[in-house]
Amino acid sequence: MAKKKQRLTTDAEAEAEVNSDDSHPKKKKLKKNKKKTNDIPTVSIAVPASIIDNVQTLEIATRLAGQIARAATIFRINEVVVFDNRRNADKDNTVADNSVEESSSDFLMRILQYLETPQYLRRALFPKHNSLRLAGMLPPLDAPHHLRKHEWGPYREGVTIKERHSNSGATLVDVGLFKHVVVDQILEPGKRVTVAMGANRNLDSDLPREVVSSSTPREDGAYWGYQVRYAHNISSVFNDCTYKGGYDYVIGTSEHGQIIKSSDLEIPSFRHLLITFGGLAGLEESIEEDDNYKGKNAQEVFNIYLNTCPHQGSRTIRTEEAILISLQYFQEPINRALLA
């Protein structure tokens, strides 16, 4: 039987903890960045954890999670919400592998977070775990924040280390280069941070770099990976949204949805868009299983309910396939909405 679920820490929660010192002189600057970030539209996807229950081996489950991570990165998704769409989901084993004892949602979140993390940070941020045994066989995301050792960028992801700098008011950060960089801030070791590298490429100078919000690269137009969030049912996907004001446009995908050509679909201007996918029995089952939606049908829950692949040759489209199909379908309508 699976162990009791313990929610994994999200990137947003870790960032809030790193930047929680109100006394720091850069606090005002971070607040300004946050205000600016609120104006940047985001696109989220919600996927059911039950898709992991339907596979027989750890290898297949790992590959499935890897497909979702790749799709999210290719289409520049900002947030992946993993939701439990069955009652008593914690009682189900993840896959047919006795060495993996965690819920389907925790397994999926762990793989998604692991793959989103730059390779040079994984050993420091992810202890050995049975669920990650086969993650090394997955193709890398090759996202913009997954910089190689010889590459220089305006920002790099890093992890704070135990070793202290000679300056007692500074912290050393491993950003995946041949030498650790210095940030002029005292931070707890083992925290993932985003570092503004500046123009000076001389790592021997001990020039202090600056820790910034993980959303700052997005303000400069870069795609900087996705965050992962857990929701215990589908209503929590909407109600527990971490964005200020929540999602202002919510799309459901289903073979029972409306059929509209991608070229004819009009998505209104949005701040936070959510695209939701169902499991084997579709979103209809997820809504029926949610006590908060008693008496409601799927069309009432979403702003629009769409069939993104109306002429399918197979009787069924797997969720990981639906994600790729749908994100391609929504690409141009989303771009039109952003330019409106």
TrEMBL record:
Biased segments, Basic residues type: 25-35
CDD domains the UniProt entry points to: HsC9orf114-like
Region (Disordered): 1-37
Source organism superkingdom: Eukaryota
A GO term, aspect molecular function: methyltransferase activity
Family matches, as Pfam families: Methyltrn_RNA_3
BP term (GO), one: methylation
Family the entry assigns: Belongs to the class IV-like SAM-binding methyltransferase superfamily.
Protein name (database record): Methyltransferase C9orf114
Organism: Cicer arietinum (Chickpea)
